[in-house]
Request: fold
Amino acid sequence: MSGVLAGFFIVWSMIGVGWVVGRTGVLGAHGRYVLNRTTFFVASPALVLVGLLGSDVRSVFSLPMLVAGLSGLGTGALLIAGVALFTKRRGADLVVTAISGSVVNGANMGFPIAAYVLGDISHALPVILFQQAVYTPLYLFVLHRVTEKDAQGAAGVLRSIVANPVIIASAIGLVLVLIGVKVPGVVLEPVQSLADMAIPAMLLAYGLSLHGSRPLAKDDGYRGLIAVASGAKLLAMPLIALGIGLLLGMRGAHLYEVVVMAALPTAQNVYVAAARYRASENLARDTVLITTIGTVLVLLLISAVLEV
Reply:
């Protein structure tokens, strides 16, 4: 299981660098704000576009992607229903809880885990493509709607779409892939360079957010929601993926692969999105922290039970 540990070492190393940058203050008082916005408005759309342009249509509409989609959306829907039913939390708290428990760290954890644990990085593509093409645009749209005063009505819907470059990049990428357009290398190269910045920038921004913070602080009032979101991410989502995979006839290595991908920790871009809208940032930050630590044990357990 050295692959699991190697993947987490990479992630925590970059987060650690971010913490040191925050501790030394080399980026100034507004470094985290600038880095978050650069990631959200520049690097993340480039990452989505490059990821989609480099994908195979068969990967976009594959059985593993169906499992990734149903387990992610299903977990998010259960969280929304449960939190709305049993608490008085609404708006951004509700949305951030749902995505914190259902958006996996596919980009920077999925590839190393797929490479070292599953033996092929292609196993990470279905979940990454689902999140890039469907889930990320969806939750950013919803988050914009619940946090921005100008997001109401038909004009507000249009503004919600235009205000999210990830949604635009996803739409462009899907259209180009589906009609079979090949983008010239000279055009794609600068986009690729910006995309390469996305994951390190997300991790650095997250590390910056940890400096001076008090994870699980009682005053934040998020402990219960963090526990619920973390439990859903670490336990419910892998179990839902297991059930869906079995219902769809998946067995052996194929079933193992989709469950491993569902068990990845909460993605740092959930924190980036929360920071962008200044909505429940500490909830997202602490859920990322808890799940990134806890997923190690979950992946080891899954490997012991299901590995073929």
About this structure: The chain is about 80% helix and 0% strand.
